[in-house]
Amino acid sequence: MEQITLSYPATRTLQGRALVGVVGSGDMEALFVPDAGEKLEVSITTSIVNFEARWRALFDRLSTLTELPAGQLTIHDFGATPGVARIRIEQVFEEAAHA
């Protein structure tokens, strides 16, 4: 297992917590906990070794396409494709926006 930590400037706040996905399905789960800070702190535990560059590229792209919320995003990845990872991340932010 590999542990990856990333940090990005936050441009919005959300009020709710959210959990999406199921790591045991061969997919990934994402848990978002909001805070009043100015950063999105991302903690990724993945079964894929040497994937930090891919995760960094995904979040770099997300940060240019959408407003990232302030808080802690915890991801447990069991080999999800980049497309599935992006969907789960967008889902968890959407759920938190409506929680």
Automatic annotation (TrEMBL):
One of its GO terms (molecular function) is acyl carrier activity. Pfam families: ACP (PF06857). It is found in: Cytoplasm. The modification O-(phosphoribosyl dephospho-coenzyme A)serine is found at S25. It comes from the Bacteria. The keyword Disulfide bond does not apply. Its main location: cytoplasm. GO terms for cellular component: cytoplasm. The keyword Phosphoprotein applies. Covalently binds the prosthetic group of malonate decarboxylase. Transmembrane segments: none annotated. Keywords: Cytoplasm, Phosphoprotein. Belongs to the MdcC family. Subunit of malonate decarboxylase, it is an acyl carrier protein to which acetyl and malonyl thioester residues are bound via a 2'-(5''-phosphoribosyl)-3'-dephospho-CoA prosthetic group and turn over during the catalytic mechanism. This is Malonate decarboxylase acyl carrier protein. It comes from Mixta tenebrionis.
